[in-house]
Write a structure and sequence with these properties.
2 copies of one chain form a homodimer.
Chain A (H helix, E strand, L loop, with lengths): L1 E9 L3 E8 L4 E8 L6 H18 L4 E10 L2 E2 L4 E3 L9 E2 L1 H6 L7 E5 H12 L8 E6 L3 E7 L2 E2 L36 H14 L16 H9 L3 H25 L3 E5 L7 H14 L9 E4 L7 H17 L10
C-alpha cells in the first residue's frame, strides 16, 4: 500500500495528471487534451475515469490522500477557475465543487499554476529551505507567486500574484486584460515576439527571422536564432531581460525575497534571458538589497514539474487540514 | 495598578514617547529633541530617564509590560536602526541591545516607522478587521508596510516594504538612495516640491509660489496655495496622485489587499491627493480588482498616532512572545 496524492496540471492544450508520493516521486503521469472538451462537465467526467484507470493499472494498491490542481486563473479560496483566457470553459468554473462529486471522500484543492509551481519548488525543488521567495512563470503570459514567511500570498480575494499586469509603460502595448503596457506584453513568449517585431521595424541588420510571419514566429525560434548569433534575436532577449530586471528590483523592494525562480518556456533560453535580467535587476535595485537576491532556474527538472507542484499543493493542504478532513468527511 | 507599554516614535527632529494601555489610550505623551543628541548613548540614557520620570509622575502605579519602538530604517529582526539618512547616528545603531541595559526585565521590540503605523492601524485604527492591507506614509520620503493574512511582511532580511524605491522612470530624478527615478522622488513632501518646480519651469500660469525659493518651499505651502485655487499647486497634486495611483495599481496586482491607507504630512491635503490617486489607481488596475480596493486615511487621529503604533507593536509582540518573555527573563 502506497500513500499518494493526485497532481493535476491543467493547461490550455494539455492536462497532465499523475500520482505523487510524499517524497515527490511521480508514480505515473498521463495526459489528456484539454481543448477537445468544450464542456467542462465532459472534461471532468473523462478526467475522473482516466485517474481511476491510472490507479487501477498500478500493481501496488494506492491509498489516495487528496487531489491537488494547478490551473490558469485558479482561485484557491473559491476552488474555481475564473475567466481563463486560454481555456474553452468561459466564465467561472466551480472546479472543486464539481470534481468532489467524483471523489466524495477526498479533499480537493486548487490554485493557479504559478502558485502550484511555487509550492512544488518549496516542497521538492530549489526552495526547500527558503521562507521568502518569488516564482515567475514565463509562458504565453507572465504568472507569479509570492511566498512570504513560508506561506503563499493569496490576498483578500485569492488573486494576489498578478505581476504580469504591473505597468511598464503608460499607453504601452495592448494587453489581453484590456489595459495597456502590462509587463506580460513585454516579458513572456508573446512579449518577446512583439519586441522582436519592434526591433525588425526599427533596424536594418539582417536576420533569418525577417522571413517569418508574426503568426509563425515562436519564442523557441527566437532562441534558436540567438544561439546562432542572430543580433536581432539577441537584442530581443536583452530588452526582455532589461524590462524584467527593473520589475524584479521593484518586487525585491516590496517583498525582500531570498531568491526569484524563473520558470516556463522562455526560461529554457538560459543565459540569454537570465543574464540581462540579473544585470538589470542589480542595476535598479535598492542599494541595501544589492547582491542579496539569487535569480534561479527551477530545480524541478523534467516534464512533470507542474504535476509535482499540484501534488505538493495537495500534500501541503492535507497536512494542514488533516484535522478538518477526516476520512469520509468532505467539507 | 495599570498595565501599559511604552511606545516610542523616533523621528529626525523629535522623539515622542508615552504609555499606552491595552485599549489604545495614551496615558501621557512627551517629547525630546532627537537631533540635539549627536551621540546615541547620550540619547538613550536621556530617553530612559525621561520614561522613568513619566512613569513616576503618574498618580497610579504602572505595570510596564514592554517597550515598542518605531524608527526610520528600523530593522525588526536585528533590533537595529541602519543607515537612517534623517538621523545623526550614522551606520548601524544596535538600539534594542543598548536600550535593554536600562530595562533589563522588559521585552524591547523595534521596527520601522511605517510598520509601526500599520500595526497601530491594525490594533487600534481602521484596519481592525482587515487581514490584507497596505500602509503608505508620505513624509520627507515614502514609507510603506504590507500586511498579508494578518502579519507584517518583513522579508528575508527585515527590509521589505521599500515601496519608496520602486522605479517610476529610468534615468529619472536622483534619489537619496543613489538610484534614479525612485517613487519617493515624485511622491512625498520632497517629491511634490520637485514636481511643483518642474511645472513652474514648463508653464506660464501665475502663481504665488513663483516667489518662493526651493529651500523655503514646503508641501504645506503647496497645499495652502491649492486650497486658494492656485492652478500650478493643484497640478502638482494631480501629477503626484497620478504617479502614486499607477504604483498602487501595481501593489494591488501583487498583493491583492482590501485597503490601502495613506498617512503622513502629505495625506493631510485630503482630496487634493486622495482623489487623483484613486482615479489613477482605478484606471491602471488589473480589471479583476477594479472597484475592490479602498484608499483610506488613517483612523488614528491626532498627534499620538505614531506613539500608539509603537505601543501596539509592543502589545502585539508581548502577546506573541508571552511564553518566551516570562517576567524577569529578557532573552
Amino acid at each position: 500500500m502506497i500513500d499518494a496524492v493526485v497532481g493535476i496540471d491543467i493547461g490550455g492544450t494539455f492536462t497532465k495528471y499523475g500520482l505523487v508520493d510524499k517524497k515527490g516521486q511521480c508514480l505515473r503521469v498521463n495526459l489528456i487534451k484539454t481543448d477537445q472538451f468544450v464542456d467542462f462537465n465532459e472534461f471532468s467526467e473523462h478526467l475522473h475515469k482516466e485517474i481511476q484507470g491510472q490507479c487501477d493499472s498500478l500493481s501496488e494498491e494506492i491509498n489516495i490522500k487528496g487531489i491537488g490542481v494547478g490551473a490558469p486563473n485558479g482561485n484557491y479560496y473559491r476552488g474555481t477557475i475564473e475567466h481563463a483566457p486560454n481555456l474553452k470553459w468561459k466564465g467561472i468554473v466551480p472546479f472543486v465543487e464539481k470534481f468532489k462529486k467524483y471523489f466524495p471522500d477526498l479533499p480537493v484543492v486548487l490554485t493557479n499554476d504559478a502558485n502550484a509551481a511555487a509550492i512544488g519548488e518549496m516542497v521538492y525543488g530549489g526552495a526547500k529551505n527558503m521562507k521568502n521567495f518569488v516564482v515567475i512563470t514565463l509562458g504565453t503570459g507572465l504568472g507569479s507567486a509570492f511566498v512570504v514567511d513560508g506561506n503563499l500570498v493569496y490576498g483578500q480575494d485569492g488573486f494576489a500574484g498578478e505581476l504580469g499586469h504591473v505597468n511598464v509603460e503608460q499607453n504601452g502595448r495592448i494587453c489581453t486584460c484590456g489595459n495597456k503596457g502590462c509587463l506580460e506584453t513585454y516579458v513572456s513568449a508573446t512579449g518577446i515576439k512583439r519586441t522582436l517585431f519592434n526591433i525588425l521595424c526599427t533596424r536594418f541588420e539582417k536576420s533569418d527571422l525577417r522571413n517569418v510571419s508574426f503568426s509563425e514566429l515562436t519564442s523557441e525560434m527566437i532562441y534558436e536564432a540567438a544561439t546562432k548569433g542572430d543580433a536581432i534575436a539577441r537584442e530581443a532577449f536583452e530588452i526582455t531581460g532589461e524590462i524584467l530586471g527593473v520589475k524584479l528590483s521593484d518586487v525585491v523592494a516590496i517583498t525582500n525575497p531570498e531568491a526569484i525562480f524563473i520558470l516556463g518556456g522562455l526560461a529554457k533560453a538560459g543565459e540569454f534571458i537570465f543574464k540581462p535580467t540579473q544585470l538589470s535587476m542589480e542595476k535598479n535595485i535598492f542599494p541595501v538589497f544589492r547582491g542579496t537576491v539569487k535569480i534561479l532556474p527551477s530545480q524541478l527538472k523534467g516534464e512533470n514539474a507542474a504535476v509535482l507542484g499540484a501534488g505538493a499543493l495537495a500534500w501541503k493542504e492535507w497536512n494542514i487540514q488533516s484535522k478538518r478532513y477526516a476520512p469520509g468527511q468532505t467539507s
